[in-house]
Specification:
mainly alpha; 2 domains; 133 residues; flat
């Protein structure tokens, strides 16, 4: 039993070596950049943010309406849910061959689509997709 535990611990040695090498490489590169890096004189012009050749005047970015983010989140939500339809479509033909689960897989997908449609109708009723107003 003790030999088995030692062999299981020995399986983690490559992972620990990789972890030490990764941390050592990151620390080494940071120290090397500090030691070898070119140290120039700092002035206000060099320390300002570079904005495609333009002087950084005003706010950093334009403000968007919250409706824009709501539409974006709803798009991602429905897009991810629709992705679940593809594996179902691939497995559906195989599941039709099995008589016991034919109605189960079809019913589960119909209930999934009904819930998805209910969420879509709710978003339409709340005018979540109308981000101009």
């Amino acid at each position: 039993m003790e030999n088995l535990q030692q062999s299981q611990v020995a399986q983690y040695i490559p992972v620990l070596i990789l972890l030490v090498l990764a941390i050592g490489f990151a620390a080494g590169v940071l120290m090397l950049s500090v030691l070898v890096g070119f140290r120039s004189k700092h002035n206000r012009a060099k320390d300002t943010a570079y904005e495609c050749g333009k002087d950084p005047i005003g706010e950093g970015g334009a403000r968007f309406s919250v409706k824009f983010y709501l539409v974006a989140m709803l798009f991602i939500l429905f897009d991810i849910e629709v992705v679940f339809l593809y594996p179902w479509a691939v497995v559906y033909r195989q599941m039709l061959a099995e008589h016991a689960t034919r109605n189960l897989i079809f019913g589960s997908m119909i209930s999934f689509i009904v819930v998805l449609l209910a969420g879509y109708v709710y978003a339409l009723n709340k005018k979540a997709f109308d981000w101009k107003s």
